[in-house]
Amino acid sequence: MDLIDLRSDTLTRLQPKDLLNINYDYISDDCYDEDRYVKMLEFKIADLFGKESALFMPSGTMSNQIGLNVLSNPGDELITEAGYHVCFFESSQTSALSGLVINNVRSKHGILTTEDVLNAINNKARWSDLYATPKIISIESSINTYGGLVFPLDEICHLKMLCNKKNMHLFLDGARVLNACIAIGISPDKYTEHVDILNICLSKGIGAPFGSLLVGRKTDIDKAKKVRKWYGGALHQSGLMAAIALNKLKDYSARLENDNMNAQYLGAICSQYCQLTHPVETNIVMIKSRNADNLVRKLKTYGVLATAWTSNTVRFVTSSNINKEMLTRLKSIFEKIHKYKEFI
Ligand SMILES: *Cc1c(COP(=O)(O)O)cnc(C)c1O
């Protein structure tokens, strides 16, 4: 029986068609600015988000870290939500690589609001610019730790107005931003219009084997190119990866829509047996469990793979690995195990 792999959308598999129609003459050294596929990909992504420029990065973490770096100076303050990736996973990198002070907030429902940010600003000494200067507001969409919630567009607008007032920048960790745009039926350029700089991952639901892009103003992206070199992220013949990503981007919206729909179906199944931590909005379903490790181990014996996100939450992510028939099979597994108190 096939495994039902719901651990992550980074585990998607390449298909033979993803490697078709690649012109090897286009692939050259991107450090000489001579790789045509990398340039085409950067142009396509900048255009998709209505920004001036984009830069191909090896990973989302590097893209985030370089984005935050170009917007700040050491000792500046970053205001974000405690569950967002730049804090939840990257707090050490953010402080060690850019010398940023993270002022993190626990928001009420997972969405960082202007009120949260104002509290974070007002609860520290701001007597003069001799003290930490709040420089970046960092948001995420969809929000991984909060069950894949879409960061609401009106809140993005409010945060940008606050940034303008406080002389701050708005950064979006948009690893799964296209899942979010599809969920609310908005074009990527409209959704990110008020964001100064964003990261998007190709290695998540898009299904590319590799890569992320940092997208924003030309002046910021030019700076980012230098920092990428320093971090060792300037790659030579990355055009092969860019070419595969361009193939994957051709039909991304139908695939991500399908992933989002499968997550709705999975959410409806799960909610018959347990509690969801958040309503399902994109391709993530997060459930509460008495013992996440036990539940994940039990599911594995039935060939279902999931992630114990915290000790009492389990994360499922839909992707092109998953179809509806598999989720129906998962329903029958839940039916068997839900009565055991040690799991759910
Ligand atoms: C996956 C992810 C990242 C990091 O991407 P990597 O390519 O794994 O480094 C950053 N932010 C969010 C929200 C993510 O989901």
TrEMBL record:
<dbReference type="InterPro" id="IPR015422">
    <property type="entry name" value="PyrdxlP-dep_Trfase_small"/>
</dbReference>
<dbReference type="InterPro" id="IPR015421">
    <property type="entry name" value="PyrdxlP-dep_Trfase_major"/>
</dbReference>
<keyword id="KW-0032">Aminotransferase</keyword>
<feature type="domain" description="Aromatic amino acid beta-eliminating lyase/threonine aldolase">
    <location>
        <begin position="5"/>
        <end position="289"/>
    </location>
</feature>
<protein>
    <submittedName>
        <fullName>Aminotransferase class I/II-fold pyridoxal phosphate-dependent enzyme</fullName>
    </submittedName>
</protein>
<dbReference type="InterPro" id="IPR023603">
    <property type="entry name" value="Low_specificity_L-TA-like"/>
</dbReference>
<dbReference type="InterPro" id="IPR015424">
    <property type="entry name" value="PyrdxlP-dep_Trfase"/>
</dbReference>
<keyword id="KW-0808">Transferase</keyword>
<comment type="similarity">
    <text>Belongs to the threonine aldolase family.</text>
</comment>
<dbReference type="Pfam" id="PF01212">
    <property type="entry name" value="Beta_elim_lyase"/>
</dbReference>
<comment type="subunit">
    <text>Homotetramer.</text>
</comment>
<dbReference type="GO" id="GO:0008483">
    <property type="term" value="F:transaminase activity"/>
</dbReference>
<dbReference type="InterPro" id="IPR001597">
    <property type="entry name" value="ArAA_b-elim_lyase/Thr_aldolase"/>
</dbReference>
<keyword id="KW-0663">Pyridoxal phosphate</keyword>
